[in-house]
User: Fold this.
Amino acid sequence: MILLNTSSTAQALSVIPRIYSSEFSLSVRDDSTNVSVFYEIINAVNSGNYLSFDNIFSPVLVENHFYDLKLYIDYNYWNTNYSFWELYDQFWNLDSEEISDIYKDRIFCTDQDVDQLNKNDYYKLNNGQYTTYNGSNNEYIVL
Assistant:
């Protein structure tokens, strides 16, 4: 699961895909509203085993919503040739129906600081809703 926030600036994602490509399409579908938004990524870089890229999510992601993330290569995208000409069995001037999924994952959007590795901060479901009193109660003394 990928954690993102509601920021309107670019957010970095690093994934381990099935196919490494610097150009692909990205689809984000909100589970609550079933609305999908599509993006074209053209600047992904390989760093080790990861494919890293930045994306500005517009419209801005909604806090406490789950999203389905899908990275895919659309062979019908105009002026882009992803397939090898030897293996491509359709005429060059016809639309292709072929789409290759290269990565699927879930996104959860939250503005809480979640850093389980370094700070031992976990996501708190009721953050800010309930407060607990951790002080001592000196008014009542049992004799």
In short: The CA atoms of residues 66 and 98 lie 28 Å apart. The longest strand covers residues 99-109.
